[in-house]
Write a structure and sequence with these properties.
Helix 6 packs across helix 9. The radius of gyration is 19 Å and the shape is globular. The longest helix has 14 residues. It is 37% helix and 23% strand. The chain is built from nine helices and seven strands. The protein is of the alpha/beta class. The protein has a domain of 189 residues: Vaccinia Virus protein VP39 (Rossmann fold, 3-Layer(aba) Sandwich), CATH 3.40.50.150. A seven-stranded mixed beta sheet has the order 3-2-1-4-5-7-6. Bound molecules: S-adenosylmethionine.
Length: 273
């Protein structure tokens, strides 16, 4: 998940969902007047921040900052997407926030990141503390996703278990939950957010071709698989997806034509400080 170059070529699903989310929920954001400062948490390579989010934010934004735990991602984002008003910085949303960032953002966004965070309450409290009074956040992150079941199956197999020891760490805390919106809403309200709205959306993504599926699963793979085992790992990964009927059974090998459909749940949370 550190390969920014591969990620920017492979995040078609994430880009589609960020766009749909901003089209639907962006209209309901009450943007402040005067100069505003905006943060995108878990910006990755920076392409969603600049190619999608930036198009929705008003002209009175004087600073758009993307942050990410990964130094590689931030270096790539600064090299490819920084400009006068836009920059990128390393920041772990699960750690103590630098004091100079407290209460400094009018809007906080995050796409496809918070499912990686184990200490949800710490991250959401940090988001609250990063916002100025009256500021708003819009956060989209994964609930149930077939990829997480693949991690579980492979982590139990004799062949792969030593490489996937910490698989649970990379599975959304809401993957097994039937009613994640209730948990997230309660958590946000208890932290102090007001006007909290949380929805859990049923989404479907049909991969246009094999390369798109390979690119996505490889670019978000959090496990350190040795180079010489990568192809074998991908074969077994695809076989699990076939057993789960995510990949059509007629798609018989990794190099042939393929029909793959992800049905998954995306949680969208909005709140005000
Ligand atoms: C799937 S990418 C999403 C990137 C981008 N937002 C998008 O929608 O394409 C998730 C990103 O979250 C970052 N991330 C994971 N844990 C994080 C944390 N605790 N704090 C900040 N970023 C984190 C990863 O490094 C990765 O770049």
């Amino acid at each position: 998940m550190n390969n920014a170059e591969l990620y920017q070529r492979s995040n078609i699903l994430q880009k589609r969902d960020a766009l749909e989310c901003l089209e639907e929920y962006g209209k309901r954001i009450k943007w402040k007047n005067g100069r505003i400062k905006i943060l995108d948490i878990g910006c990755g390579d920076g392409s969603v921040t600049v190619d999608i989010l930036k198009k929705f934010i008003p002209n009175n934004c004087e600073k758009l900052i993307g942050c990410d735990i990964s130094e590689n991602m931030i270096q790539f984002a600064n090299e490819h997407h920084a400009s006068d008003h836009t920059s990128f910085m390393v920041l772990d949303i699960e750690e103590d926030m630098p004091s100079e960032l407290r209460e400094s953002f009018d809007n906080v966004f995050s796409f496809y990141t918070l499912q990686w965070v184990k200490h949800q309450e710490v991250a959401f409290t940090n988001i609250y503390n990063l916002l100025k009074k009256g500021g708003e956040c819009l956060l989209a992150f994964l609930g149930h996703m077939p990829v997480f079941d693949v991690y579980r199956v492979l982590s139990r197999s004799t062949k792969w278990k030593s490489w996937l020891k910490d698989a649970e760490r990379f599975i959304s805390p809401y993957h097994d939950n039937q009613n994640p919106e209730k948990i997230v809403k309660q958590m946000m309200t208890s932290i102090g957010f007001t006007s909290v709205e949380v929805e859990c959306l049923e989404k479907t993504f049909i991969f246009p071709d094999l390369d798109a599926l390979k690119g996505l699963v490889t670019s978000v793979n959090p496990f350190e698989i040795p180079k010489d085992l990568e192809e074998d790992f991908l074969l077994d990964y695809f076989n699990v997806l076939r057993d789960m009927h995510v990949i059509d059974h007629e798609s018989s090998n990794v190099d042939g034509p393929i029909k793959a459909t992800f049905n998954y749940r995306l949680i969208v949370a909005k709140g005000r400080k």
